[in-house]
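Chapter summary example.
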Amino acid sequence: MQPMEKHLENTLAQVVEQAIQTGEPVGSQYLVERYKLDVSPSTIRNYFAELENQGFIAQPHTSSGRLPTEKGYGYFVQNLMKPKSLTKRENSELDQAAQDQDHEHKRAKSLAKAAVEICGQAVVLGIGDADSYYTGLTQLFGQPEFKDWNRILSMSDVLDRMDSVLAKVRKTQFQQPMVMIGTECPFGPLCGSVVVSAREEYLLGILGPIRMDYAQAIAVTERIKNLLET
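The structure predicted for these 230 residues follows.
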């Protein structure tokens, strides 16, 4: 994607950041107040219109606010997202999970459970060529995006095919965390994911709605990869 004008990038970043936190449409007045902007809400609405025309945000029918589109999230991740560092507590939780288990596969599953607690998303784990493990589905279905029954049914279909989905994804080695959003996400177009390979045996994926916090998920998967490889 080609870089956009700076004022539009700033507005898109602000909309994405707030949407990730709240799951709610973001209004112009809210952005002005939240970020103490030196422009008026009407100016922000003009920026909204430009971003809408380019396909980066959309206006839900029931709201005057805006939400990022799949394209908007993709641009944000590729061009605007700032790296996150894990907190001391989060690092401690992962270290503890890695030490709790005496068997390597149990250790990987323990780390997956810790990732659920940190990210508030589901985690899928491929072990070897055939074994699949997933945890945190309650957190996934508790997201606002999945209050709609049709969306739950769509996700349930993906979960029913999880073993075959993981088998396909495992054919690629992801040496660095890879973000896959919406139509690029192997777990379904309603989702976003961050996947990474550890050694040649494990594939770890953090799975959430498209609105998920990708910077945090990248930090968590990087740390777990390091723990599994040491």
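To summarize the output: The chain has ten helices and seven strands.
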